[in-house]
Amino acid sequence: MRESILTIPINEIFEPMDGCPICRMRNTLENRCVEYIMGAAMMEPDVRMETNALGFCHTHLEQMRGCKNRLSLALMLQTHLKKIDFDTFTHKQLFAGKNAKQRKLSQVNNSCFVCSKVDWGMERFMVTLFEMYSKDKFFRELFSKQEYICLPHFELLLSLSQEKLDKPTSKEFDKQCTSLVKGYLETLYADVSHYCNMYDYRNTGKDADWGNSKDSIERAIRFLTTR
Q: Which of 60, 5, 1, 23 is nearest to 157 (CA)?
């Protein structure tokens, strides 16, 4: 399959073979979106209208808070808070119904500008990923060499494979995904178990061998949650 503007980003994401490639895909989209809105785009009227309406989830607010330009975040929060006040408390709609305020709050509490853009990008990445898997032998080999697939993204890939691939290819894809997940799960279990065992007094001392267990808690959290 010839490389194109659609396939090059997928290959670049899969080439490091470090951790879950779908997490890397999501992280790439997140980072680009946050850099975009924390830059000059923050002052674009159409972008500002969307951020005012959708707001941000906790994960992406924290990511934005870690950026250098805190003023951009403060300005977006200023107008977002003003819109919440207007929509929920100030603006009175005729025939709004008794649950209107609750519905408005639910919209604010369950929406995020960055999540919406990441979801949009992920949908398109997934289309390209499955097309590459079905047509590109090199990519299938690259996929099979990944370190692991995290549990939530394993579910995502399984849910899409039957829709995006023909039956024989879907079966092969599911088998490869399962192998990546099961293999890493066994390794992770062994490392977490070793970490627990190292707290036995018989395993203490200056020559204690922690092996690969010291970061096993963090790796387990990433595997279970994508974060």
A: 23
Q: Are residues 127 and 6 in contact, defined by beta-carbon separation less than 8 angstroms?
A: no
**In the chain, where the domains are located:** 1-135, 148-227
* Residue 84 in tokens: 């919440």
- Residues contacting residue 128 through CB under 8 Å, at least 6 positions apart: 6, 7, 10
* Residue linked to tokens 């066994």: 186
Q: What is the pTM of this model?
A: 0.89
Residue 207 and residue 61: Cα distance in Å, rounded? 44
pLDDT tens digits for the chain (227 residues)? 667 778 999 999 999 999 999 999 999 999 999 999 999 898 999 999 999 999 999 999 999 999 989 999 999 999 999 999 998 888 666 555 667 778 888 888 999 999 999 999 999 999 999 999 999 999 999 999 999 999 999 999 999 999 999 999 999 999 999 999 999 999 999 999 999 999 887 877 777 888 899 999 999 999 999 99
Per-position DSSP letters for 173-207, written without gaps between them: HHHHHHHHHHHHHHHHHHHHHHHHHTTSGGG-STT
As a whole number of angstroms, the distance between CA 79 and CA 191 comes to 48
Task: HSE, CB side, 13 Å, CA atoms: give it for residue 116.
Answer: 11
3-state percent helix, strand, coil for the chain, nearest multiple of 5: 75, 0, 25
Instruction: Return phi, psi of residue 50, to 5°.
Output: -70, -45
